[in-house]
Amino acid sequence: MTDPALPTVLVVACALVDIDGRVLIAQRPQGKALAGLWEFPGGKVEPGERPEAALIRELDEELGIQVTEACLAPFVFASHAYDSFHLLMPLYLCRRWSGVVTQREHAALAWVKPSKLADYPMPPADAPLVAWLRDLL
Ligand SMILES: Nc1nc2c([nH]c(=O)n2[C@@H]2O[C@H](COP(=O)(O)OP(=O)(O)OP(=O)(O)O)[C@@H](O)[C@H]2O)c(=O)[nH]1
Ligand SMILES: [Mg+2]
Description:
Elements: E1 8-16, E2 23-27, E3 38-39, E4 42-44, H1 51-63, E5 73-81, E6 86-94, E7 108-112, H2 127-136
Parallel strand pairs: 1-6
Antiparallel strand pairs: 1-4, 2-3, 2-7, 5-6
This protein binds 8-OXO-guanosine-5'-triphosphate and magnesium ion (MG).
Residues 11, 13, 32-34, 39-40, 42-44, 58, 87, 123, 125-126 line the site of 8-OXO-guanosine-5'-triphosphate.
């Protein structure tokens, strides 16, 4: 049994999908938890913030792109027990944005075909999300 006292942390993440059906993943930088692993851009929802607003903010901060709420389609979610917290992470799909995707906070960015996502090491919470993308995108 996992510790019932662990906090549940709400993190919002996005699968940006380009015109060729490739998905953007980003490599976590040195100095952060899970450094070197590839993730979907996004981050923690701040107190009082709506999830979609948090994701719009994170996509601007991390990638320098502007997304409207109407272009964020709820897709699947991850629910995963890490040692120190329980992660609840909705993954949205987004095919429309403005601005140019720019590496701002990550070590690297990659546009990857869904069938190739499994070649990139990702946090343990992400494995089911990758399977859904491969099967449903
Ligand atoms: N963004 C993102 N976070 C993920 C993924 N998978 C996963 O386990 N996480 C976890 O979710 C948490 C949120 O990560 P984050 O570092 O992006 O949060 P943040 O952007 O708000 O950064 P900050 O806390 O340094 O300000 C981390 O513990 C991270 O390891 C994923 O695919 N994308
Ligand atoms: Mg982040």
